[in-house]
From TrEMBL, chains A, B, C, D:
Its cofactor is Mg(2+). The keyword Iron does not apply. The active site is at D128 (proton acceptor). It is found in: Cytoplasm. Catalyzes the phosphorylation of D-fructose 6-phosphate to fructose 1,6-bisphosphate by ATP, the first committing step of glycolysis. One of its GO terms (cellular component) is 6-phosphofructokinase complex. Belongs to the phosphofructokinase type A (PFKA) family. ATP-dependent PFK group I subfamily. Prokaryotic clade 'B1' sub-subfamily. Homotetramer. The lineage of its organism: Bacteria, Pseudomonadati, Bacteroidota, Cytophagia, Cytophagales. Residues 3-278 form the Phosphofructokinase domain. This is ATP-dependent 6-phosphofructokinase.
Length: 323, 323, 323, 323
């Protein structure tokens, strides 16, 4: 292998730039040429491909977003799209790819490899942390810290006014962000897709907390919570406890941005190095991840089809800590 | 005057604690006793009144929210409520008040003084900065910085995905928060109550920006904007420019919390000192403020009835800077 | 067991309060009474012991420092001191202890248990992360993030002026803080106690980086680095490369303070719960820790005498990433 | 005037990039061409001059440091150096300059204008805030906030251990940074060049504070303090009060970096616009500044020779607030 490409795809996540930097530097370290593919598979099809040298990734390790930009590509979902992508790679002499992204990214890469034989090693870049094959995804630690800092500020108001706040954090399919936010903010409840709580039990928990003279109450709601989003739940609770001064806030897009945390920079760097060295060693259609502090490569197929279970002991923790 | 009280009222604002601390320390410095009245006028009526010494305000200068808590009181709006409040003050031997809050707070205090003769000096504590009689209110600088830091994070995503973001910041009656956020974030447009822009002109400005190859667009919307809130405006813009990948985010309650900025701690301290020294010097029904770096006392009546105009040169700045 | 005590000892670390909160809430959850012992073993000897209820630990999860205060106690190193401590515990009816701290804390607790039979379960509270028996100590993640944010700021100046900065971070015996700071800041070199580099090799690495047109250079130095501290090393480098515009900065005490990160709040909560449940289950002279995401109890003796080795792959990473 | 240049000179300051952006965008808005001169006067002499368009300053408003880099130039202090600089400007067709920096920058610009007739308008870019002709300099507000956030962290440790901390902040000739840091952190004393306090009086103040049961003490020392730096003062205090557990920390270079605060971005933008519009209107050898919220142009001569006095009421405030 002489020349590889790197792209970011799907939603951006803090640490993607640290990962791109690691990919570039590792490729150069091992004597490879490296090209940046702009806007994910979309830019690959269009040939938005630029040579990257060491200074191209200087001073980006601390930046949020992705200097390679990201996009979702309908066309790459088609055989014709992938053929155009393949022709671009052949044209540029690129023999392998590092794809930084999530499930959708890896699904496309696996198909691409099967059809056209271009090997890809994946890097888990998503704030959601819902990928099998790695304890943590790149961007997750930063997103949790960003959400928690926001909740800390909201609690100032909750305490000052003896209010209840229903706070929605990201997490379409999992409570990975909601759970540490709830534990770290001293919330009374975390509502997560993995463990449905009825409205009645939510109301009961809040009534009990009020009985213990808690002046302010925090409920953390994952956006994918089955009982509905924060506004929906707050409305039902207010119906049941009319004297509750309840507010709703959605933390929203700030969770995707910002300078990556130390843990995310470290993880992104480890995985960027591992992805390139995996390619060099002949790997294909696997994702580099860290499990129990050890580097592991997991087939894309497993990453896509298997579910990483939420640690249920965390839910018990919230019960104890809100005593 | 031997004994004074201090209360916080209305929405909480970062720096209120720094102001309470300054009130307490200044009172003690001048040999007065000082009492904290919990939950604003509501706690005053109920007699939630506690003696404060120097250690009661140790280590609070950096804390958001208000250690005296805040509440809105319907009862203080009635003559009976104010009479109960007066009786509480007589009972505790409190001869003067420092009231930290906004327009509603000062309206109540002025009435109270007229009816019962208890002098109050006010401190402008609100993130909105819409009070006449001071260049800046306590909490405003922090709120702007909090909003701007959030917008910085959102721009990471906007840039990575070539998106437009419509971002709603606080400001029911004014663009004081929206304007510096727009200038400081490199936004294309700021929509503020003071200067209505038609949807057509908004669309035209965004079309022009797209013509200049701007890949990401930021529109800052004050919550009190006449054309409607961020969601409403974004919907109309998307109708006119369907190819725009537009998102909406509401910064929300985080703008009220957090550790106060250096400027807010300094301002809160200056005003806290001035409020107590104003009381000692026989002032009543005035608000302490800083105008052009000088301490001024403005009658409550003027604070309530006069409007502090937004500097219109700021709107021109956004035009120039988004060139 | 009916009544337990909790204390913090040694240098303070962010997350200690989150741990104290978890200890208190878990004790109450299981029907125990819980007492806070002020100023570590020093306060224990003097009987500075206060009952803690659930509100005593409300709103502290996000605070740096320790509400129980900390101190080093010479007297507890003596048999007489420990006897006084024992008498205090008997007097207060306290039957078990949770001690949050580091090696010195556990050494004292083990001796105390052997002599007087009072069981202690330890919680690893130190920013240094150099304790055997847990992957991470409480406070470590926050300290690294604080140092890294400071280094990010310094790099603004380094880049603007094409300067070299020698930056000293904490770590008397280990490079645990220095290594992620170096990887996360894009540093050219990390100098750590575990892997001595000669001045000649440092100079050679920097010369090579200059040859690659790197305009600014960052060297991270752990305070316990064998070749000497940052100032000493910078002086020698400047002698060898006189044209280098080199500066030294010591990050210093800020690394011990600040609101704990999400990871530290979570870890502190897990360990606080585990410590109390360990006591209830009859454990003594063990430290609760998390290894590979699983809760483990390690005998104090092992924590004190065994060394947790630095992951040497990290040093190789810096070589690659500074390509 | 058809074509102007912009440079940054002297120590970098947060907000310089926001100012460069405003200069570029304003020039383009008024139909001028604009060139960036790298590394201040040094790059001017060497002809390191690049055309800037609107995208060159996209996404820099929030970045610390200066994208134009900065340097100090001995050569520009000589007549020959300035002649080479002049030849470069003639060669590039540049007819006017915006120079962002401090006293040294303006001294050079004034001389250059007198000798070669190239008009310069200055922008006050320095964290020190010691320039006559503007209430605040670009970077000052950020530097104070950075220092104060660091001091907040240190106070966590001071409180936890009942310690005294002597903390040195920047300010070679003035207490502009030290004073708000002291007020905002609840310090007992601020030692500033403008108001010398004897060691005896420092010791007396600290003894009094200890008598009031203050457990932790903070002393803020400006680096230019006449009685010596923080270490020197701490040593003398420890000699006098041996039982004091005193530590020293120097905040250092972090005060120069980081994302600019909202106030600095606004100020930098206002001044950048004013500088270009001043040049267009025929101004020369003046600095654009904001005094009492109004734009003023002050002759370089006055900026250099006159002193902006520190508001002495601030020193009295510290006395009151540390009661």
């Amino acid at each position: 292998m002489k020349r590889i490409g790197v792209l970011t795809s799907g939603g951006d996540a803090p640490g993607m730039n640290a990962c791109v930097r690691a990919v570039v530097r590792t490729a150069l370290y091992h004597g490879l040429e490296v090209y940046g593919i702009m806007r994910g598979y979309s830019g690959l099809i269009k040939g938005e491909i630029v040579r990257l040298d060491t200074t191209a990734v200087a001073n980006v390790v601390q930046r949020g977003g992705t200097i390679l930009k990201s996009a979702r590509s309908q066309k790459f979902m088609t055989r014709e799209g992938r053929e155009e992508a393949y022709n671009q790679l052949v044209h540029h002499g690129i023999e392998g790819l590092v794809a930084i992204g999530g499930n959708g990214t890896f699904t496309g890469a696996e198909l691409f490899e099967r059809e056209f034989g271009i090997p890809t090693v994946g890097a888990p870049g998503t704030i959601d942390n819902d990928l099998f094959g790695t304890d943590y995804t790149i961007g997750y630690d930063t997103a949790v810290n960003t959400a928690l800092e926001a909740i800390d500020k909201i609690r100032d108001t909750a305490d000052s006014h003896d209010r209840a706040f229903f706070i929605e954090v990201m997490g379409r399919d999992s409570g990975y962000i909601a759970i540490p936010c709830a534990i770290g903010s001293g919330a009374e409840i975390a509502l997560v897709p993995e463990q449905v709580q009825s409205i009645d039990s939510i109301i009961e928990t809040l009534q009990r907390a009020r009985g213990r003279q808690k002046s302010s109450l925090i409920v953390i709601v994952a956006e994918g919570e089955e009982e509905g989003n924060a506004t929906h739940i707050a409305t039902q609770v207010k119906d049941a406890i009319p004297e509750l001064d309840a507010r709703v806030t959605v933390i929203g897009h700030i969770q995707r941005g910002g300078a990556p945390s130390a843990a995310d920079r470290l993880l992104a760097s480890q995985i960027g190095i591992a992805a390139v060295e995996g390619l060099i060693n002949g790997m294909r259609s696997v994702m580099a991840g860290i499990v129990d502090r050890k580097l592991v490569y997991t087939p894309f197929h497993d990453c896509i089809t298997r579910k990483k279970p939420l640690n249920h002991s965390f839910v018990r923790m919230i019960d104890i800590l809100s005593t």
